[in-house]
Design a protein that fits this description.
Blueprint (H helix, E strand, L loop, with lengths): L8 H4 L3 H29 L5 E2 L2 H13 L12 E5 L2 E5 L5 E5 L11 E3 L8 E12 L2 E10 L4 E3 L2 E4 L5 E6 L9 E4 L2 E4 L3
């Protein structure tokens, strides 16, 4: 609208100071939007979409219907986007969490998480993330490297630092990133 010449600021604003403040805000918003969009595309959409395996498709459909209670799977995409960097989510209480994948480009360690809703205690390390679209909404899945059964030592858990398997989990069934310390005995989880 501004570039087309059809925008007349004199009709909308009564003083030059107001016009200056509004134009500065518009430019800041435009610059921030372009940067944020470029960063999101750079980090989460770097690789082309990957096709779901038959097993993954079946597992996801069952989870959407049985756990998330989606009555229709209209728009179930048969592809996912891989994200090997970070995932930011907000839980039901409005708290923001940032999960770090194993191949994060920075100096940060990958997030350690607990799987919720199981009858036994299961811990794992975030490997990478999948973004999947169903019913017009973006759903986040996490590929988790699983650890052996932990040992309870006082009020902490001690894990052997070796991966025994890998599994796909929806972000709604994993804990917030846990605080842990690594030493010669293994991984000590401080806030499980």
């Amino acid at each position: 609208m501004i570039l087309s010449g059809k925008f007349d600021p004199g009709k909308l604003f009564t003083s030059d100071k107001t016009l200056l403040r509004v134009s500065e805000k518009i430019m800041e918003d435009m610059e921030g939007f372009n940067i944020a969009t470029a960063q999101q595309n750079k980090t989460s959409r770097k690789a082309p979409p990957s096709s779901l395996t038959v097993e993954m498709e079946s597992f996801m459909m069952r989870f959407y219907v049985e756990t998330l209670k989606m009555c229709s799977l209209f728009g179930f995409s048969k592809t996912v986007f891989e994200n090997h960097n970070t995932l930011e989510t907000v839980d039901k209480c409005g708290r923001r969490f940032r999960y770090i994948g194993r191949n994060h480009r920075g100096q940060k360690n990958p997030s350690l998480i607990r799987i919720l809703g199981t009858d036994r205690i299961v811990f794992g390390c975030v490997n990478f993330f999948l973004e999947h679209t169903v019913c017009g909404t973006l759903q986040h899945w996490i590929i988790v490297d699983l650890y052996p059964v932990p040992e309870k030592v006082g009020k902490y858990y001690l894990l052997q630092d070796n991966v025994i398997g890998q599994k796909l989990y929806h972000d709604s069934v994993v804990s917030c990133p846990l605080v842990y310390v690594k030493d010669s005995d293994g991984l000590w989880i401080l806030n499980a």
